[in-house]
């Protein structure tokens, strides 16, 4: 494998993977947040004047598979976070684009993002924030019960287009790998933990271009078009006297009470009961219309506003990667970011980073949960003992 382009750190980090790649690949950016990572990233001053800018911690987190495998983690609740890194500018025209990263929500996220952005052109990294235009936004977003999905937004002509497919994201407190693959045939794939969760056509799954065909605005339904699927049955005639059947009748079993006094209680009247013969308002039966022609639809014609874009998948300038998000509860950790044109290389990179430590991380998480449960149980025992002691003392 020949790595022709990209940062020097990407070259050094991925040389060990060279033997597994059968074709040459470009690595445009790769970050494992090892020593010196701060020299490659610029912390934005966005929201700083409002005292709403959150701080990043360089850490492996509360549970991990390797204490030396660190990423950057949000550290303050109810804060905005913005940080970015620059790489040699490129375009993904006529080539595959792969964006991949690892994210972990240690805080059991209930509202906040875990996505990254690719940006082009000239960006003032010190001012990078929520209003900064971007080319691609990709990653998990969680908020309440309604939003638990992978956002994939492609920006074209200054307009952000959200994928129309609902791709559920992971919601636990462990690390997961998110991968977006965009191919030069305008197809894409979204992977989570190296498993494909969604694939298809950019033409179909984003409303970037107007439709190729539209309903003919000049077309009108013919006057003799019969779109009634059912019609009244002409042979079904209302029975004679049907409308004279009362809803209620006098209860034949009712008897005047023996102690009833007409002078004091008034004239006794037998109560009424529902009439078993009454069937409700008469409704004529319906039958299939033999002349039914179906629901009328306007014919489709070529959309005069449609103009094909063979490079619907491509971006002329990709130059920065940024993480910009709002978090109600902090604790999201990013790591192992990769931008390349080789999906196989990205898969191998995920196996050599995330997959290598996932079992140990899961074991560490389970141990932390067990310890927490034991502490809760111990506290409950102490509280119970305290209540018993207080009750005994009160009795004495």
Short recap of the structure:
The protein has 396 residues and is an alpha+beta fold.
Order of helices and strands: HEEEEEEEEEEEEEEHEEEHEEEEEHH
Q: Which topology of the domain at 8-207 and 313-377 does CATH recognise?
A: Jelly Rolls
CATH class of the domain at 8-207 and 313-377: Mainly Beta
Distance between the termini: 83 Å
The global form is flat
Helix content range: 10-25%
- Uncertain stretches: 1-22
Structural class: alpha+beta
| CATH second-level architecture of the domain at 8-207 and 313-377 | Sandwich
Subcellular location: Endoplasmic reticulum lumen
Signal peptide: 1-25
Binding site for an alpha-D-glucoside: 115, 117, 134, 141, 324
Keywords: Calcium, Chaperone, Disulfide bond, Endoplasmic reticulum, Lectin, Metal-binding, Repeat, Signal, Zinc
Plain-language structure description:
The protein is 17% helix and 31% strand. With 396 residues, it is of the alpha+beta class. It has a domain at 8-207 and 313-377: Jelly Rolls (Sandwich). Strands 1, 3, 4, 6, 12, 13, 14 and 22 form an eight-stranded antiparallel sheet that branches. Strands 2, 5, 7, 8, 9, 10, 11 and 21 form an eight-stranded antiparallel sheet that branches. Strands 15-20 form a two-stranded antiparallel sheet. The radius of gyration is 35 Å and the shape is flat. 29% of the residues are buried. Disulfide bonds join 111-143. Belongs to the calreticulin family. Pfam families: Calreticulin.
